[in-house]
Design goal:
This is DUF397 domain-containing protein. By secondary structure, the protein is an alpha+beta fold. The protein has one domain. Helix content is 14%, strand content 27%. It has a four-stranded antiparallel beta sheet. The protein is globular, with a radius of gyration of 15 Å.
Amino acid sequence: MADIPPNLTWERAAPPDATGPGPWIEIAFGEGEDGDAPVYIRETSAPDNVVTTNRRKWEAFVLGVQAGEFDHFVEDGSGDRAAM
């Protein structure tokens, strides 16, 4: 596993009105501004388990989420996965 810098600033991906401990996803951006700069991702319930990617891949993922490319992974309210 890659070394995780100790001085990261973690940003919690939670609704503004969220209360309680989550679990929530947290993201921290490592040093650098280019596409190869590291991005760290963890869940609040397991903060020692950190996944690392880079900014280029993170930005592609965010664009995919915004475009609805992952909506089929979300339950539709009935307990079933949403149709593709």
